[in-house]
Amino acid sequence: MSKAQLVEMSKTGLVHAAAGTIDQADGIVKIPASHYYDPERWQLEMDRVFGRLPLMLATSVELPEPGDYKAMDAAGVPVLLTRDMDGEIKAYINSCAHRGAQIMDEGCGSAKRFTCPYHAWSYNHSGELTHIYSPRDFGELDKSKNGLVPLQAMERSGLIWVLPNHRSTIDIESFLSGYDELLSHFGFENWYFHDSRRVEGPNWKIAFDGYLDFYHLPILHKDTFGSDFSNKALYFGWGPHQRVVSPETIGQELGELDEEQWPMASLLNGVWTIFPHVSIASFGEGDHRGVLISQLFPGDSPGESYTIQNYLLEKTPDEAGIEAAREQFDFLRFVVEQEDYATGLKQQKSLQTGAREHILFGRNEEGGQNFHQWLARILDCEDDKLNALFSEQ
Fold it and tell me: Using CA atoms, how far apart are residues 82 and 63, in angstroms rounded to an integer?
């Protein structure tokens, strides 16, 4: 069924490519400029978006073997991800039951157990407290009631989602709205993890707006890669998640082929965004085909964000392939940091003057309209209605 959806999207793209058209939104949408800098609005987003919704925190290939782990900050929550001895993904608050100290430093690795650096209390991969330092001196304690605080986690399509809020009752599967079925065609669980980097940016929505926007490609990126791309885009949605693809690219790659010959790489072209903070963009082809998986997180204030860029390769590279991947990853960092985010940081500064009451999303910018409309719906939705909100889609 999901492959049939990919084929239908490509057919739609071919029709638009032949006609030189795109689908357009009903009208131009205004978004209050204060949404990008107002501290009360920002705190509401931290509480009701990043504080309640599942976040895509890792790729499966970062934790390939039992005992592997990844420790990270997820919008202010220290999270410890691990693959247990049965090969299942588990997630916990990275906090010792003794005094609350963080147990593992940020990063990936492999460990037989998790031992707190403060007083050497240890936990297994199932989150159970297994060892107390000097237990006779410390006093009697029921270990079974003092394990790590578990978080809801789900591994699908080579990606790992976690609910950083241990009290949240969101159903991750409902939240994904079937989007994971489409993403499964990438086969990320079998890809090669090349490297990851951190890039500083503006307000998280300014950054995310850019991932949904092909309108700027031939302008802002004219000196890097933009001259190779059209400014036209088609948008397809599954709940709050969206795919952005150029009809011209579909026409160029599939226009001369019979449907039975359409390669999966072409069916998956474009940018796949996972609400509220992930973008997946394809680059290269053949043995050098890769994806940039960008994980966007809010910073410590409304005007800050940071992005973890992860570069994966479809095939395990040889020495020449590693060098090509390094060059491509360096290029992508430059484009995002020196073009997209540099522009976004200036935009942030301008908006904070309060000189403009609104910003605009045109009829050709349906992705941005959809994003901000979904954001508004989620901010207005009470906890006990969230599952129904996503299940309706």
Answer: 7
- Please say if the pLDDT value at position 76 is more than 90: yes
> Containing domain of residue 111, as a range?
57-162
Identify the CATH number of the domain in which residue 229 sits.
3.90.380.10
Shared domain check, 181 and 115: no
- Which structure tokens are listed for 61? 């290939």
DSSP 357: S
Say how far apart CA 281 and CA 312 lie, in whole Å: 11
Q: What's the pLDDT score for residue 2? A: 87
- In the numeric block, the tokens 């949605």 are attached to 237
Average pLDDT over residues 358-376: 98
Tell me, yes or no, whether 384 and 271 share the same domain: yes
Rounded Cα distance between 260 and 70, Å, is 41
Closest C-alpha among 103, 105, 110 to residue 127: 103
**Residue at which a domain ends, from 162, 186, 218:** 162
Task: Give this prediction's pTM.
Answer: 0.96
Residue 42's nearest CA partner among 194, 204, 170 is 204
Q: Give domain status of residue 247, yes or no.
A: yes
Q: Give the number of residues written for the chain.
A: 393
Helix (H) or strand (E) holding 360: strand 358-361
Given 133, 162, 191, the domain boundary residue is: 162
Q: Are residues 321 and 370 in the same domain?
A: yes
**Angle formed by the axes of helices 366-380 and 204-211, to 10°?**
140
In this structure, how many other beta carbons lie within 10 angstroms of the beta carbon of residue 286?
A: 8
Q: Are 133 and 189 members of one domain?
A: no
84 Cβ contact list (under 8 Å, min separation 6)? 66, 90, 125, 126
Of 368, 296, 299, 246, which Cα lies nearest the Cα of 76?
A: 299
Q: Which among 70, 155, 60, 58 has a CA at the least distance from the CA of 109? A: 70
Residue 368 belongs to a domain? yes
Same domain, 202 and 333: yes
Contact indicator for 310, 196 with CB cutoff of 8 Å: yes
- Regarding whether 293 and 186 lie in a shared domain, the answer is yes
CA separation for the pair 356, 377 (Å, rounded): 24
Which candidate, 355, 276, 375, places its Cα nearest to that of 75? 276
Structure tokens belonging to residue 346? 């200036």
Q: How many domains does the chain have?
A: 2
Confidence of residue 368 (pLDDT cuts 50, 70, 90): very high
The residues facing 74 across adjacent strands are 77
